[in-house]
């Protein structure tokens, strides 16, 4: 593919097409959707972290006036344990047990029944009337507790090394011989680290409205990161044919990976079927925090060895990640990404998927990679100190580059990691003076990025404008970027391009919005669709001029004779050709469906300055610069927003955010008042540097940008605190009580 270099709209900060609707309140989210005759669904949740369900009596709830339907696990399709059924990255064996508890309740907040009634109050009262007989069992919340020899086993069927275990899986990547490598090392640093589960923190709780017609034709309105995922999972879990389900994506108020699975849609579908009425379900914030996926907590050990000249010869990482109550922690991200920024001849990286009595984890922005980078990049900082090297110089000396074989398998093509290090080193921030109790840290990070299935349709309207329909929910600016791409290709003003997100009945299959894949994939299918449209426009102009289509070129929004030899004709604009469409062959449009390939991983390097209040133990981030290889910034404003958003989330993860459990095994801070996410006053202005090393396998040079910005942040903050205090914090969050305890312990 030829990468476009001379652009009018690609690379411009055009006005986002969804902006006015969102700031004026006109944008419709899932909770805004209503239907005549709708009723409300509510969920009864387990109060226990671990309990066998002996019986459930719903008779009193069913007898309550206003109650129209009650369901339990008996109504959900059961996927037997002995055979996996994979959809995307999810196993339906675990999904059917996550949306509704079966044999056991596995975490506090686990759904055990659901009710639909004519009002929310009646539905809530009905939930209280459901009688559940529990046999309360011992539980394990933390990794260490779950791995003890006498730990309560969540699933007797789960075996590790031949015995029932809370280890649900192991993943290893290996390169070279680490035993030999460490024998050659002259300086070795080895440390252990822990992180706490943190929630994605999207501002919009999960919500849906589901209508089931008499012939079982089902319509789902919901906010998610993939309407095709919603359709497929709902079909699997209800037994409805996918062809009978239409999933319509609402606007989405944040997801960050947390809306890549379903919680409510299958339950609302079954309640709607049973009641004969449309059912609306909206989670409270407490339900979101108790029962939807945070990312994993972790326990890691990292060891890196180098020669005295700074050449790293061996690296080893062991990462234990919490899956929650059902298998599926993101060990791939921790294991595969942690050492990827570096060209190390001998690497062994191992991950363990650990079950515990917490809600099942979900993806969170480069899932697993920030956990691994926190450990590796902190050790890199200590290694630089031991070698008396500048930390960026150590990274430059060992940086992955074109031709480097990553431990997780691929040989890197042209990548921009070195450019991010050089840009960070040259940035004024890196050389600015620091004050008392201030410190500076750096860290790097990597994320795989992805391609996958995508579909698009480009149609020319009767008045000569353009409507583009894609199949991916827009959570990161894809509509604005696609408008730029399409306007560039057609040679028209971007304001003449409308970009819509199609539902499952109006556009071809498209995979989830996630993994930093959407603009990469959708720009490919939109490009090919636009090229087909341009070919049609050239053919139409050729017919009018009675010349060969090869003698017509398309530029600046109009058909022109390709050369003087083709004849002397006035250009035919897009609007003119659209007006003539009925007489010249009919409507103009084209669609393309692809399983896109050629995505390349992304790299970033961050600089963080902190100031520590030693009286209160408060760490304040006072300056932050994020440098990233962004491929080609199709819409720079959105790219900067992605980078700044990742940094903001990482600062929260580093300094404040954590799930706190009480002695009864329940989340003690299930709301934004006590779960401490950063707000504007907690953050500095976040500077961004976009390094553009275009992806040659993409027509616009696109690389995914949304995941990388979170990966280095926690390590950069930790390294800055170490620089300020001379103290190494290996446990997140580095909150005031921990900082004060460390300062007091060291006098």
Quick synopsis:
The protein contains 20 helices and 30 strands.
Description:
The protein is an alpha+beta fold. The chain contains 20 helices and 30 strands. The strands form eight sheets. The protein has a seven-stranded mixed beta sheet with strand order 3-7-1-16-13-14-15, sandwiched between helices. Helix 18 packs across helix 19 (713-725).
Write the layout of secondary structure elements.
Blueprint: H1 19-24, E1 39-45, E2 51-57, H2 59-63, E3 67-71, E4 86-87, E5 90-91, H3 92-99, E6 104-105, E7 111-117, H4 120-129, E8 131-136, H5 143-147, E9 159-160, E10 163-164, E11 167-175, H6 178-184, E12 187-195, E13 207-212, E14 218-222, H7 227-238, E15 245-249, H8 265-275, E16 279-282, H9 285-291, E17 298-306, E18 312-324, H10 331-337, E19 347-355, H11 369-387, H12 391-397, H13 417-426, H14 428-431, E20 438-447, E21 452-460, E22 466-470, H15 478-490, E23 497-501, H16 518-545, E24 552-555, E25 558-561, E26 572-573, H17 574-579, E27 589-596, E28 602-613, E29 618-629, H18 636-655, E30 686-691, H19 713-725, H20 736-745
Parallel strand pairs: 1-16, 14-15, 18-19, 22-23, 29-30
Antiparallel strand pairs: 1-7, 2-6, 2-8, 3-7, 4-5, 9-10, 11-19, 12-17, 13-14, 13-16, 17-18, 20-28, 21-22, 21-27, 24-25, 25-26, 28-29
Helix pairs in contact: 7-8, 10-11, 11-19, 12-13, 15-16, 18-19
Name the features.
about 750 residues, 7-stranded mixed beta sheet, 5-stranded mixed beta sheet, 30 strands, about 30% helix, about 25% strand
């Amino acid at each position: 593919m030829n990468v476009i270099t001379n652009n009018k709209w690609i690379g411009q900060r055009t006005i986002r097409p969804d902006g006015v609707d969102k700031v004026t309140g006109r944008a419709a989210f899932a909770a805004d959707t209503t239907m005549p005759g709708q009723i409300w669904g509510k969920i009864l949740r387990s109060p226990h972290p671990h309990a066998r369900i002996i019986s459930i009596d719903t008779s009193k709830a069913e007898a309550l006036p206003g109650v129209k339907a009650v369901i339990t696990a008996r109504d959900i399709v059961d996927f037997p344990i002995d055979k996996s059924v994979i959809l995307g990255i999810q196993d339906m064996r675990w999904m059917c047990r996550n949306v509704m508890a079966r044999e056991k309740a596995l975490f506090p907040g686990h759904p055990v029944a659901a009710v639909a009634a004519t009002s929310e109050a009646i539905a809530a009262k009905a939930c209280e009337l459901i009688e559940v007989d529990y046999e309360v069992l011992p539980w394990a919340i933390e990794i260490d507790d779950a791995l003890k020899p006498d730990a309560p086993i969540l699933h007797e069927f789960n075996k590790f090394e031949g015995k029932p275990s809370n280890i649900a899986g192991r993943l290893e990547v290996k390169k070279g011989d680490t035993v030999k490598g460490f024998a050659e090392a002259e300086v070795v640093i080895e440390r252990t680290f822990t992180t706490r589960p943190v929630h994605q923190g999207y501002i919009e709780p999960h919500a849906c409205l589901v209508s089931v017609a008499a012939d079982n034709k089902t319509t789902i309105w919901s906010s998610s990161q993939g309407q095709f995922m919603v359709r497929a999972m709902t079909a699997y879990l209800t037994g409805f044919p996918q062809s009978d389900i239409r999933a319509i994506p609402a606007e989405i108020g944040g997801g960050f990976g947390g809306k890549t699975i379903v919680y409510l849609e299958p339950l609302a579908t079954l309640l709607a079927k049973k009641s004969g009425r449309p059912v609306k379900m909206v989670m409270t914030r407490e339900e979101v925090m108790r029962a939807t996926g945070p990312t994993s907590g972790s326990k890691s050990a990292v060891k890196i060895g180098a020669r005295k000249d700074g050449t790293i010869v061996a690296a080893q990482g062991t990462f234990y990640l919490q899956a929650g109550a059902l298998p599926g922690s993101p060990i791939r991200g921790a294991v595969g990404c942690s050492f990827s920024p570096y060209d190390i001849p001998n690497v062994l990286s191992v991950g363990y998927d650990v079950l515990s009595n917490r809600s099942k984890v979900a993806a969170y922005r480069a899932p697993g990679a920030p956990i691994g980078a926190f450990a590796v990049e902190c050790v890199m900082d200590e290694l630089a100190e031991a070698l008396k090297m500048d930390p960026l110089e150590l990274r430059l000396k060992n940086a992955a580059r074109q031709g480097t074989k990553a431990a997780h398998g691929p040989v890197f093509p042209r990548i921009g990691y070195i450019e991010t290090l050089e840009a960070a080193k040259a940035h004024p921030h890196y050389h600015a003076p620091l004050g008392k109790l201030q410190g500076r840290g750096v860290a790097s990070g990597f994320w795989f990025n992805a391609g996958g299935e995508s579909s698009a349709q480009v149609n020319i309207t009767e008045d000569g404008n353009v409507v583009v329909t894609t199949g991916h929910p827009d959570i990161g600016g894809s509509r604005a970027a696609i408008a730029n791409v399409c306007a560039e290709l057609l040679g028209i003003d971007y304001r003449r391009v409308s970009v819509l997100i199609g539902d499952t009945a109006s556009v071809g299959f498209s995979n989830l919005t996630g993994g930093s894949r959407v603009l990469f994939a959708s720009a490919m299918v939109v490009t090919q669709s636009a090229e087909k449209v341009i070919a049609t426009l050239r053919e139409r102009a050729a017919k009018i001029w009675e010349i060969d289509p090869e003698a017509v070129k398309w530029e600046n929004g109009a058909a022109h004779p390709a050369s003087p030899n083709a004849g002397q004709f006035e250009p035919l604009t897009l609007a003119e050709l659209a007006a003539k469409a009925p007489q010249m062959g009919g409507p103009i449009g084209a669609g393309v469906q692809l399983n896109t390939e050629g995505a390349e991983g992304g790299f970033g390097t961050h600089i963080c300055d902190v100031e520590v209040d030693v009286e209160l133990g408060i760490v304040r981030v006072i300056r932050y610069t994020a440098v990233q290889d962004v491929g080609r910034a199709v819409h720079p404003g959105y790219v900067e927003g992605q980078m700044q958003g990742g940094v903001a989330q990482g600062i929260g993860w580093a300094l404040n955010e954590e799930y706190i459990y009480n002695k009864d095994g329940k989340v003690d801070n299930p709301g934004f008042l006590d779960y401490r996410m950063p707000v504007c006053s907690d953050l500095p202005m976040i500077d961004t540097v976009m390094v553009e090393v275009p992806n040659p396998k993409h027509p616009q040079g696109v690389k995914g940008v949304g995941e990388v910005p979170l990966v280095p942040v926690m390590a950069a903050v930790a390294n800055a605190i170490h620089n300020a205090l001379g103290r190494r914090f290996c446990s997140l969050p580095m909150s005031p009580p921990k900082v004060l305890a460390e300062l007091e312990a060291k006098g």
